[in-house]
Amino acid sequence: MANLDPHALRHLQLCIEGLVQGVGFRPWLHRLAVQFDQNGQVANRSQGVIVELEGRIDQQQALIATLQSQLPPFAEIHSLRIEQRPWVGYCDFSIVTSHIGGKPSRLVLPDIAPCADCIADIRNPDSRFYRYPFTSCSHCGPRYSILRSQPYDRERTSMARFRPCSVCEREYGQPDNRRFHAQTIACPACGPVVSLCDAQGQTLAQAECALTQTVGRLHAGDIVAVKGVGGFQLLVDAANGHAVRRLRQRKQRAEKPFALLLADIATAQAVAQIDAAAEAVLTRPSAPIVLLPRQPHDGVADAVAPGQAFLGVMLPASPLHQLLADAFGGPLVATSGNRHHAPLCYRNDAALQTLADIADVFLWHDRDIVRPLDDSVVKFIAARATVLRRARGYAPLPLTVKQPLPPSIALGGHYKNTIALADGHSIIASPHIGDLDDNATLQAFDATVSDMQTFFGITPTHVMHDLHPDFHSTRAAAAMHGKKHAVQHHLAHVFSAMAEHGLEPPVTGFAWDGVGIGEGGEILGSECLSIQPDGYRCLARLYPLPLLGGDRAAREPRRSALSVLYGLLGDRWPDLPCVGQFQAQERALLASMLRNGVNCPPASSAGRLFDAVASLLDLCHVNSFEGQAAMLLEQAALRSVCKADYPYRISGDTPALIDWHLMLSALLDDIGNITVEDIAAKFHNTLAAVIVDIASRAHQANVVLSGGVFQNACLGEKTVTALERAGFSVYLQQHWPANDGGLAIGQIYHLSWSRS
What is the domain count for the chain? Predict the structure, then answer.
């Protein structure tokens, strides 16, 4: 091919796919075109951006090299196609109206916390954005929560009703301005307005007065419902014990910890221990809640996180939150604006109806939230920042997989529900929906299923679901068009971790949680699986523990403790606090139930084993929130440096049984002789040793850990360390939850394996 004259002129068309909408990509590309003396245009289209360039060949080559090596914050190029086109004769370079049509993009940016420049603007008395709660630019602001359809342009967001003023229009058109083509640009003269209202919906104040009065209300101990990025939050002074207890009473939330909102890292360091890794996560554009060790004298009311060694801490996710946190000056409780077990409120009228008997006042605004997004939650496990709840700031970023998938939908499980869509090489998980226990959450589930299919333009031909026949998600799958695929609960957990890390069989997978239905209808929760190219088998699981009273056992760890004691001693009850939880007549009845197998279904559940040990150690006998007992056991173990473990026995084959009798008999002997913390540590050490033992028998290099039990930082650290010391490559989930919030990802990834 003859060499091209570098000074010759030509027309190139660039088709770019990736994270290129809502990140200031078009303005940045405009500046590049001017820098390299190119005429033409750039426009959003459903699957990315399309660029027309006319100019010298050498300058085009320099522009493309820059495009491939330097990008604006958050932008990613996944595909770049270049074609030569006939000369048009553009006179300049412009950003033009978006092209509508074709498949919607699989890459939609999540909501972005305010950037440092916008925070400086709202704090600067000389800025026209001073103390304006809806300040944003090309690099930050709401995205997915306000986008009605693709591509990302103002007219397809809930900002469409706010016509920019002449000053905003001018900045929008200035290539050297960071608000150049910022779709959410707004100011006090033309943008949304914040209002403070009472519990009857009557306006008390607006704009600056509303902010000032809200801060005064918080200092006075009032509960304020604040409309955030993805929905309402309930805010209260975290140092005011009376106010926090009142919030607990009104929200019917006995002991579950509340998260805290702080203005900045310096303020957050007063309440939590923040190292460099934690600071990096706190200051991410996603602004998640991060679980961190609390400071010895944190100044936070005991009622915020009773009995907990960790606090959930977050920095402001919006300028509105930043202004409130700055003015308040201390930690604020910031918890989801919903009723117990109900979905997040995100519409003004619904929030007033739902939260009027919880909140004293409402701070809301007139910019609609198109879809609700709860706060995301992150925890450090084995030195890895691990997402426990994936929503605002993370969703709907996709997972890219090697093998193409047909148009598919996975409906997840019952608890911590999320759904997922797939098409080609992308798997897109929904934000956290919640437990499918009440009508409002079921409606939110159904709405999410419909919205995601429409928004991403995917009509599924395959439908994945859990094996449990009574789950709403299973029934919803049955009503959908497409080929149905039931995926065993723990297999989906393992495949969720495999999907995140791009793993293919062979893999040894440990999926430990509360309960999930097996292919034979068994109640399982401690699966140790060997995944092969042609199938899978269970290597081992826990010896079954009777669920005394069925589902009540999950709410009452004392029942699991009694099941353990009965398995070890019969009805010769020892003098332990967990036994004293029941009257003699109750103990006799429960012993009869265990003896005769009445409402005591056997369950190989790691979650219930943790509950039993927590109750045996007098840490927790009745859960006031899910996972409380296991959480307290984890924290007790973290306070110990004990390296010893208990004897254990693994017997039988396919599957082998991990017999807890020997381990817990030795544990009982320790009670009263060594500290509770050391007993808890020995229990965790033993389980880590069991996992290494089973992995060694499987003779497979790759080991994945999934399921809610592995969100235990103590178990995760001990297990990863022991496995790596034994020579295994260990994979924990980080970007998608290991709990049931990750099931849908695993269900879909399983499809590629089962099809092959």
Answer: 3
